[in-house]
Amino acid sequence: MCFESDSECRPLGWLLGLPFAFLALLLSVVGVLVWIVGLLLSCVCPCCLCVTILVEFAIELIKAPLHVMRWFTKQIPC
């Protein structure tokens, strides 16, 4: 599975990143829960800026496994 647009596949980086991506996947589950709570709170009080920041942070937590795998595949040269 390659994430690069120039079609360089780095299987060693991908394999080394799998355990860390699994941990990031667990973090993304926490992000989903925070996102749901943040959305409910933003419906109750849409003027609250801290809830919006919390929802944005939760979205980044949900994207964490992809960021981790991209970082690992970029670090391994072959």
Overall average pLDDT: 80
Note poorly predicted spans.
none
Number of helices: 3
Query: How far apart are the termini?
Result: 14 Å
Strand tally is: 0
Explain what this protein looks like in three dimensions.
The chain has 78 residues and is mainly α. The protein has a domain at 25-73. The protein has helices spanning 11-44, 49-62, 64-75. Helix 1 (11-44) runs antiparallel to helix 3. The longest helix is centred in the middle third of the chain and has 34 residues, at 11-44. The radius of gyration is 16 Å and the shape is elongated. The two termini are 14 Å apart. The mean pLDDT is 80.
Set out the fold topology.
Blueprint (H helix, E strand, L loop, with lengths): L10 H34 L4 H14 L1 H12 L3
Helix pairs in contact: 1-2, 1-3
Keywords: Membrane, Transmembrane, Transmembrane helix
InterPro entries: TAXIMIN_1/2
